[in-house]
């Protein structure tokens, strides 16, 4: 089974080795990369992801600072915390773990993060730069998927890539990164008519809907490469993706598992972006509002 399986833990591990080497080099020059993580509320999945991010930082020698707030925190308090971090020289990357409680405007919070420290790649300046192919922080999940494809020798150019899902943090940037690598991209979403007719045409199928096992055997083409971004619980409480892994496995040429596929790459690319930010520390421009 291993030939078909795109193993995000293994590929992420290889990339983390090169990041670690570069972190060591930077540290020998007296620079320690630093990441600030803001966590609001008590969502248990968010707590797990943040703990995993901190553990990964510590394994690679990246300084991480956790800033925790109760769910009732005001938007203004959050904004002033971000302002402080924007000018903190020990901090190269700032991330606010999503989702935020409903009374907080997520976009307003993202907009307040300095684009020079926006290691999630969610700030409109980084999104815009990514769209026109300028160097920028790229969002971690889509850029991690591009790495999975690259390390698995999947040539994207000229292929029909179908992205199911249009979120700002995964679906939309995913399609754009595939387009930049010369794929022919189709977006599908909750209003798409006859989803299956389109997913069946995909050479590369990326599914990011948050709907457990939405994609089954009848929805994929023979030999397709399937990337599952989903993170759901099945009726037995077991972690599962948006793709019915067991049903499609025989049909596809390669597939990511859940867990152990895309998830670990999200954290790897966060470490990568934090390192890139630390490398640019000396040339970082003051934020012009
Ligand atoms: N500020 C951000 N918020 C959120 C992001 C993000 O990129 N930035 N993405 C997701 C959550 N996420 C990272 O924050 C994330 C999700 C899943 C994993 C992961 O490694 N999953 C494991 C399984 C973990 C488990 O057992 O529960 C896997 O797939 O193997 C990492 C990061 C939303 N919020």
TrEMBL record:
The lineage of its organism: Bacteria, Bacillati, Bacillota, Bacilli, Bacillales. Belongs to the tetrahydrofolate dehydrogenase/cyclohydrolase family. SUPFAM superfamilies: Aminoacid dehydrogenase-like, N-terminal domain (SSF53223), NAD(P)-binding Rossmann-fold domains (SSF51735). Homodimer. The keyword Lipoprotein does not apply. One of its GO terms (biological process) is tetrahydrofolate interconversion. This is Bifunctional protein FolD. Keywords: Amino-acid biosynthesis, Histidine biosynthesis, Hydrolase, Methionine biosynthesis, Multifunctional enzyme, NADP, One-carbon metabolism, Oxidoreductase, Purine biosynthesis. It comes from the Bacteria. InterPro entries: Aminoacid_DH-like_N_sf (IPR046346), NAD(P)-bd_dom_sf (IPR036291), THF_DH/CycHdrlase (IPR000672), THF_DH/CycHdrlase_cat_dom (IPR020630), THF_DH/CycHdrlase_CS (IPR020867), THF_DH/CycHdrlase_NAD-bd_dom (IPR020631). Residues 6-120 form the Tetrahydrofolate dehydrogenase/cyclohydrolase catalytic domain. GO terms for molecular function: methenyltetrahydrofolate cyclohydrolase activity; methylenetetrahydrofolate dehydrogenase (NADP+) activity. It holds the Pfam family THF_DHG_CYH_C. Residues 139-281 form the Tetrahydrofolate dehydrogenase/cyclohydrolase NAD(P)-binding domain. HAMAP family: THF_DHG_CYH. It catalyses: (6R)-5,10-methenyltetrahydrofolate + H2O = (6R)-10-formyltetrahydrofolate + H(+); (6R)-5,10-methylene-5,6,7,8-tetrahydrofolate + NADP(+) = (6R)-5,10-methenyltetrahydrofolate + NADPH. Catalyzes the oxidation of 5,10-methylenetetrahydrofolate to 5,10-methenyltetrahydrofolate and then the hydrolysis of 5,10-methenyltetrahydrofolate to 10-formyltetrahydrofolate. Gene3D superfamilies: Leucine Dehydrogenase, chain A, domain 1 (3.40.50.10860), NAD(P)-binding Rossmann-like Domain (3.40.50.720). Pathway: One-carbon metabolism; tetrahydrofolate interconversion. Its EC number is 1.5.1.5, 3.5.4.9. GO terms for cellular component: cytosol. NADP(+) binds at residues 165-167.
